[in-house]
Amino acid sequence: MSRVIPAKLVGLEVGAVSQTIDARWLMAYAAALGETDPRYYDTTAPGGPIAHPLFPVCYEWSVALTLRSKTIKPELLPLGVHSTHHLVIHRRPEAGDRLLTRGQVLSVRASRTGTLVVIRYSTVDRNGRPVTTTDYGSVFRGVSTDGKVLWLSGRYDAEVYAISTEDGHLIKRIKVGLGPHGLCVYPQPGRYSLGHTGVFR
Asked: What is the tens place of the pLDDT at every residue in 106-153?
């Protein structure tokens, strides 16, 4: 398997995908999160129920799936860890809005644990006015941008290895804590460790 995400993907764009926001969608998202604030469910308010601040992921999702299918090989997807999320809300989406969302690869660059891919989702209303802009980053562990380096962990040696995929030689040996089971990106979101995996929730 070739573990590479080429830097030439920068600039690739998909969209615009059109979606109409309705009150049921806004309320369903809030309910799925367990929100109890009545403003999320008030259909009698001007503009209807307010959108949860993270609701943009709903209308960005179809664009995300399309862009992923054009940029990331299916066998690399399980190696991805959502590592950054920067959301700018220019105005809250409202029931009745028809929104257009585009996705564009902003950057593909090496990180300590693999390759960081940042995608921008830009959403505007039917008049072209900005609604939300999201820069979504994923680190693909053990993946290089040019396919020349493979990152592996040495569970019983407390080390991480960078290995050349061209001739198999060891490029670098990095001492880490005891028993690394795999490569994990920090900081992880959450308060509680899920055990020895190094992943928190």
From this structure: 888 888 889 999 999 999 999 999 999 999 999 999 898 876 667 677
C-alpha separations of 194 from 112, 189, 190, 199 in Å: 23, 12, 10, 6
Of 109, 111, 113, nearest to 153 by C-alpha is: 113
**Confidence band for 31, pLDDT divided at 50, 70 and 90:** very high
At the top level of CATH, which class does the domain 7-21+59-141 belong to?
Answer: alpha beta
What residue segments make up the domains of the chain, in order of their start? 7-21+59-141, 148-183
Query: Which run of H or E residues covers position 71?
Result: helix 56-71
- Answer whether 5's CB lies under 8 Å from 108's CB: yes
Q: Determine the Cα–Cα distance for residues 13 and 131; give it in Å rounded to an integer.
A: 19
150: tokens are 């493979």
